[in-house]
Design brief:
This protein is an all-alpha fold. It folds into two domains: 202 residues, Rhopdopsin 7-helix transmembrane proteins (Up-down Bundle), CATH 1.20.1070; 103 residues, Orthogonal Bundle (Arc Repressor Mutant, subunit A). It is built from twelve helices and two strands; from the N terminus they run ααααααααααααββ. α1 packs antiparallel against α2 and α2 runs antiparallel to α3. It is rod-shaped. The termini are far apart. The relative contact order is 0.07.
């Protein structure tokens, strides 16, 4: 069942609509988070699928501009280019280092060059069926990529494929590559457009879904780590503030004691009298001072009276003010 006025099947049109929605969603996400480089891989993949479906669905059509040869070349070009992107996509998006050869050179040797050979044979023979024999090259190459894909996954996970996530990734990657292997057979045996669209799009959309899922999980984990870092940073900040306050009070106390001792030196107080002055500034009673210095309380009282006489004051409050302390127990 074709879309009215075109050669595009409704199934193909349905995939185009779905992929357009995904494409614009990914674009919005990309503009919202331009620092996320992996999203550009998904945008490229969905864009290639759109081009593949539109050209493969509409061409060849005698009502459209261009000769049969040109239209077929365009349609087959997208059929070669889309799977050519697969090795690069899995190499970058899933971190499969062992796929580097296929991502950078293999697709050129075994997809791009065979496509040029396909066009050459088609142009010389003017026989599409004869040119389709070239498709055996990408089929054999696809089998090689499948083997490399298996080795890459095993290498990535240190040859341990026991976890559920690893099995899921491996299954989706192999399933998404299956349409690539089957695409030349579909083209060679002229199977319906709906079969081709269903087989190819389902695999690649599953691949896209897996990558999006992994990206979401990665973002969630990064968010959790960020929250944990903020909590830790807040705790460190509180601890640092407490330490700063503690050190500030200690410095203030030391500064006040130095100022008081300097004033004591001005009034020529003895070493013992200086000690008693500091204890008075700290808010200690005569009894507490006596117990700390292991002397009689009466001796403390006598020392205090001598201090009053030298500083020329009559009580502790006047003494504190004159020596540079604002209040008992709170030197400044």
């Amino acid at each position: 069942m074709l879309l009215p006025g075109t050669e595009m099947h409704w199934v193909t049109f349905g995939f185009v609509c779905v992929e357009l929605v995904i494409f614009f969603y990914l674009l919005i996400h990309h503009f919202a988070r331009p620092d996320n480089r992996t999203i550009s891989l998904d945008i490229s993949l969905i864009a290639l699928l759109l081009v593949y479906n539109i050209t493969g669905g509409l061409l060849p059509d005698p009502n459209l501009p261009g000769s049969f040869f040109v239209q077929e070349c365009i349609a087959y070009a997208t059929g070669f280019i889309t799977p050519a992107y697969f090795p690069y996509y899995v190499y970058k998006a899933f971190g499969l280092e062992k796929m580097e050869f296929h991502a950078r050179r293999g697709v050129v040797y075994f997809l791009v060059l065979p496509y040029l050979l396909f066009v050459t044979v088609f142009a010389i023979s003017n026989d599409l069926d004869h040119a389709k024999n070239i498709l055996v090259i990408p089929v054999v190459y696809a089998l090689w990529v499948l083997a490399s894909l298996q080795k890459s996954i095993r290498y990535k996970y240190s040859y341990s494929l026991a976890s559920r996530d690893v099995k899921e990734e491996a299954g989706v990657l192999f399933f998404s590559l299956t349409p690539w292997v089957g695409l030349p057979f579909i083209a060679y045996f002229n199977l319906s457009q709906s079969v081709e669209a269903t087989v190819t799009n389902t695999g690649f959309l599953l691949l896209l879904a897996l990558h999006v899922k992994q990206t979401v999980e990665q973002v969630k984990n990064e968010h959790k780590r960020l929250i944990a870092s903020e909590t830790q940073l807040l705790t460190w900040n509180e601890q640092l503030q407490e330490e700063v306050d503690k050190r500030t009070k200690e410095l203030e106390r030391i500064s006040a004691e130095e100022r008081i001792l300097q004033n004591c030196y001005t009034y020529r107080l003895t070493v013992r009298e200086k000690e008693i002055v500091l204890f008075i500034c700290q808010g200690n009673s005569y009894r507490q001072i006596a117990e700390t210095l292991f002397i009689a309380e009466r001796t403390v009282t006598k020392h205090v009276q001598n201090i009053f006489d030298k500083v020329k004051v009559s009580n502790k409050l006047e003494l504190l003010n004159k020596l540079g302390a604002t209040a008992v127990g709170q030197p400044c």
